[in-house]
Amino acid sequence: MHSVRFFTNWWFEMCKAVLHEWCGAFLYNISYMVNIRYLCGVYYAKENFIWMEYALEKSDKYILLTINEKNLNTANAAELKSLLVYLFQDPQRYLVIDLGAVEYIDSSGLSAILTGYRLWRDRGGMFLIGVKAEPVRRLIEISKLDDVLTIVPDLDTALAEMVESDDA
After folding, report:
1. H or E stretch including 67?
2. Where in the chain is the domain with CATH 3.30.750.24?
3. Residue among 109, 96, 97 nearest 139 (CA)
4. Is the pTM value of this prediction over 0.90?
5. Which helix (H) or strand (E) holds 96?
6. Domain spanning 54-167: which CATH class is it, in words?
7. Could you report how far apart the first and last alpha carbons of the chain are, in Å?
8. What's the pLDDT tens digit per position in 83-140?
9. How far apart are CA 65 and CA 53, in angstroms?
10. Could you report the per-residue pLDDT of 10-66, keeping only the tens digit for each?
11. What CA–CA distances, in Å, run from 107 to 39, 64, 93, 145, 156?
């Protein structure tokens, strides 16, 4: 067991060094959070990191990011920010974030969502769907972000608003 951990630690450090050398500091930081887990192996990731569970669905018009976590907080907000910056390279005009599984969010999680808003605001827009949990809704309202963020009940409503926005 110790030799496996030593090997994975060594492999992880080598991957970090290679990414930093090839990509430079900026791309390294993005790639580190989004892609390094695939280079390191499942054992190391499960033992030493907390990875955000999510699903992606892409169409010509939008990206649907479904967050499959109960908590969106300091432990996974940095990965969400990195993922949003990474996804912004795609040409889709809209981002839809499904928070249906999220039961709790803190200020760092909200900050990560605002990163997505700032990126997609001038391109087309960002929608939050599935905001069901009272703590999540309450933090958004207390922060006065319910006037800034577009919160809709489901994907169909978001798609209808995209059509309206495109027609305007």
Report:
1. strand 62-67
2. 54-167
3. 109
4. no
5. strand 94-98
6. alpha beta
7. 61
8. 999 999 999 999 999 999 999 999 999 999 999 999 999 999 999 999 999 999 999 9
9. 11
10. 555 665 555 555 554 444 444 444 444 444 433 333 344 557 899 999 999 999 999
11. 30, 22, 26, 12, 28
